[in-house]
Amino acid sequence: MIFCLNSYAEVIHGVVKDSKNGEALAGAIIFIKDQPQNNVSSGLDGSFILHNVKNENITLVCSYTGFKTFERIVAISPAGSSNISIELSSSDLQLQEVQVISKNRATDQNARALEKIAPNVMNIVSARSIELSPDLNIANVIQRVSGVSIERSPTGEGQFAIIRGMDKRYSYTMVNGVKIPGTNNKYRYVPLDIFPSFLVDRLEVTKSLTPDMEGDALGGVVNMVMKDAPDRLQLNLNIASGYSQIFMERNFSGFDAKSVNYKSPYEINGETYVATPKDFSTQNLDLKSYRPMPNLVGDFSIGNRFFHRKLGVIIAGSFNRSYKGSNSTTFSAENDTLNLPLVGGKSNRTISEQSTQLGIHNKIDFQLNRYHKFILYNAYMNSTAAQVRESQSVDLNNSSNSLSSYSLRYKLNNQQLFSTVLQGEHDLTEKLNADWSVVHGSAMNQTPDYINLSLFNEILNNTKLPLTLSNGGSTRRWEHNSDEDWAGYLNFVFTPTIANLPVELSTGGLYRDKKRFSFFNEYKFFAVLNTDYKSLQGRDWNNFSDIQWKNSVDLNNTDALNFNAVEKITAGYLQFKLNIQKLQVVGGLRVENTNQGYYLVYAKGDVPPVGKQTYVDYLPSLNLKYMPTGKQNIRASYFRSINRPGFLEIVPYITVGEENTEMGNPDIKHTVADNIDLRYEFFPKPLDQFMFGLFYKNIQNPIEYSWSNPQGSKGNIYYMPNNFGTAKNLGLELDFTKYVRCFGMKANYTFTSSQITTRKKYRAIIEGGRGLDSLLQTRPLFGQSAHIANVSLLFKDAHTGWDAQLSANYTGDRIYTVSMFYNDDQWQKGFVQLDASIEKKFKNGICFYAKAKNLLNSPMEVYIKKVNPANNAVIEQENDRTIVRHDTYLQSFIIGFRYKLN
């Protein structure tokens, strides 16, 4: 083949494509055979420009991994065109017994292909996108997906996913397609920040369910597909270090976490033992103020295939030690007689946290023959956080002569998650396949010797006196829970031909036996007071470890947080898949039986010590996919799904939490929702896409937390779960990706509108005086933002090895706390977070990179949608809003080195 080009042109324009499907190939190397130094690589859209072409006849060469090398003579002619097309043929290798094809799952191109062929509505983030992103854990990665926002921890890090405006409770998490247990002692959801992004091959967010999927997801399903064994020896190393800007401006506050006793005196000595202050460590009471060490990240993976590539083995590990923090200002506000917020106090709070995370992943797959394959997967995640929270509060209405409270919280938390999965895949006959899984999962969450220390300062004539203790002043708490989960899956797929149409019939089932154990001890301490009934810093003690406590220590070991929970899930399904020309239909019915219960170790009063809920749900679904061309899909789907109450939510407990006094609700009902999706998909090129979707959810008995004074509470107000009738949630999603040469843009936008109507209390004139009445109020669902958007600008140059990304994420206003009073909900203000990353690759497998987060120092602000003129003297009010909280996290930076041996 001879290409003719303009004889005077010094530039060749062209595009590199796959000869099989015409899809563009990015990263192919194009050069002139006699001038190999004159070379370029094809851009993200497959195009290239080769400069300095002056000879009349040249031999053009194009090479690309996995394809045969292209070599053709180009004759330069005045009558020719300046644009050429190079088509490459695959060089796949086949084995005699078993064909092993490299799936190259890590690429963006493969992610787009999987989205395209999926039977349901799905978004996928590839390992390459994860690697280039500024994110180090899955919680931060997932916020880049359309329709997903994240709930952040007190230090500003992403922690939980909110999919399509549905609270974190309405989604579940899987690893390699298998649900994993949660570490929280109360709820089901899994914190995504304990999963290092390095271990993940791709991240899947499924938004519509099929009958073969577990049905307890209203928002969606998060599936982390972990690294798989490569086709040949591959070694990956990653080392990075960085710093948080917040600790360039203030010191880190820490304590001696190694001296913490992981068992309480009750656990060590038995139920009848009477504890004294001598049984408690004092070394972990003293604060240490210092500049922390730089953050440290280390990752590795090594994998290979053996025995003629039948056996694949990979092991990967990740380590992350980081120092995080936040600065916070909060205002306490209560409604006055006119239902307006009256601000009375101000609190300045700092949080310092040292976090250490370890993740280990191992996968072994063995292809016995062309009919049978076995897989063994193991994962272990360990996350430890040592946190100090300091808080200084003052009365704004009398700041010159008042009491200023000072509180300290020392918290050491450890979460561990272990999962083992043994799977088999079998071709029983030409048309009958079977697969099975045996799953064991365990999770643990422990918070030992959790200390709250309460002191105060007297302020006289604007002079702050020494820190003081009066009666009481400290509590020390031990909490831990464990989750043991055994499950079995069995599926059969039969592929007959009916009426000359290929049909896929599936059936299968699930059985899960879950046991959860929760332990709680709390001790209350009383300070030894001087003759003035006070214990003063500088007079009676200097360091917090010097404080003298009375021998009488109150023990609370009968709290309802001492409970055992059990849950047995039995499920079965029938599913069909039918392809009629350009139409694919997937539908069927899933049936799930739930048997959930609890046993209180200590039952008080008339509280029932044992309780359970049993119910059966029938969950139909139908997914339609019409493919007018090879690059377009039009999808329509319907599915019914459920959400079960958390393990502790059905327990009739009362406990004092970190922020609120909480109460369980044994009468809570599980949630049922009908979900409808419509989506148009266009994939003009392998890396490009355009998606437009609509969704609607009709939700019966949604579960939300609110302030309530339930019957029998004697007027006390508790933060507790409740059902709120019927809610509706609808919205639209736009997803756009476009690459031109070395530049690309990813953008998505989601609009969500939800409605739920609840009864709220309202101060009104009743029978000649003021009292509490109630009104109905319609509001959005908790945690739902009306507007979510992401924009990423990308630069990728395979020839020079430079990659860069600038990412902006916008999360709109959303309800932060549901109030029991009318028009008194607290809202989190919308914010933009700007992150960036850049990397430089070298041909020897070495890569240097840098990442920066929160470049705009976006704060977290909470407000109430009304103002009170009486507050003007103490705080600033703006735009009909009263700001009640302002948190800042500042920027964080990291630089690193990667090495990849293929």
Structural class: mainly beta
Largest sheet: 22 strands, antiparallel, barrel
Helical stretch count? 5
Question: In terms of per-residue confidence, which ranges show pLDDT below 50 for 5 or more consecutive residues?
Answer: 1-9, 93-103
Global Rg: 30 Å
Helix content: under 10%
Fraction in beta strands: over 45%
Could you say which overall geometry the principal axes of the C-alpha atoms support? globular
> How many beta strands in the DSSP annotation?
53
Average of pLDDT:
87
Distance between the termini: 34 Å
Structure write-up:
By secondary structure, the chain is mostly beta strands. The strands form 9 sheets. It has a 22-stranded antiparallel beta barrel. A 5-stranded mixed sheet has the order 1-7-6-3-4, with no helix packed on it. A hairpin with an 8-residue loop joins strand 47 (814-817) and strand 48 (826-828). It is globular, with a radius of gyration of 30 Å.
List keywords for this structure.
mainly beta; disordered N terminus; 59% strand; globular; 5 helices; 22-stranded antiparallel beta barrel; 902 residues
Mind sketching the topology for me?
Elements: E1 2-5, E2 12-18, E3 29-32, E4 35-41, E5 47-50, E6 57-63, E7 70-76, E8 83-88, H1 108-117, E9 122-126, H2 127-132, H3 138-141, E10 148-152, E11 158-163, E12 171-175, E13 178-179, E14 200-206, E15 220-226, E16 234-244, H4 246-249, E17 252-254, H5 265-269, E18 288-290, E19 295-306, E20 311-335, E21 341-369, E22 372-395, E23 402-427, E24 432-460, E25 463-464, E26 468-469, E27 473-494, E28 497-498, E29 501-526, E30 535-536, E31 554-556, E32 563-580, E33 583-600, E34 610-626, E35 632-643, E36 654-656, E37 661-663, E38 671-682, E39 689-700, E40 703-708, E41 718-723, E42 726-740, E43 743-766, E44 769-779, E45 787-797, E46 802-811, E47 814-817, E48 826-828, E49 831-841, E50 846-853, E51 860-864, E52 882-888, E53 892-901
